Amino acid sequence: MQHESAGPSPVFLLCxxxxxxxxLEASSHQNFAETLPTExxxxxxxxxxxxxxxxxxxTCKLWHxxxxxxxxxxxxxxxxxxxxxxxxVDSDRRDGLSWKVTLLRNYTRxxxxxxxxxxxxxxxxxxxxxxxxxxxxxDAETWGEILQAELDx
Length: 153
What we know:
two-stranded antiparallel sheet; F-box protein 48; F-box_dom; mainly alpha; disordered N terminus; F-box-like_dom_sf
């Protein structure tokens, strides 16, 4: 049996502390962040990975404002980067950098370091093979970790 809707589909809304179903009006806002409390929008944005979060922040001024001002969002993503770059993240935080700046400084580094540590570049025969890859400067301690990982393989 096919269900046909006479109007817009119902949307679940919380009204005055109780749940109810109300149809969306044609003139209602299409942007959830305009109707939800900021805390709820942040909870939705927390489901995104860092690349999607950065793309979402370019969607509109409101999303940009919510995302850029939420330390919770940047902290969550930064802690994922910290799993690979603990020393670098901890150093930046000790220096007083925000979670967002710390993440931006260390995101690419963490991706490159993780690739090296997991052996993605173990069979590189020449520097020319690395030219197609995005690289960042790594400190001596990181290169020591990478060398040890290579020796352990």
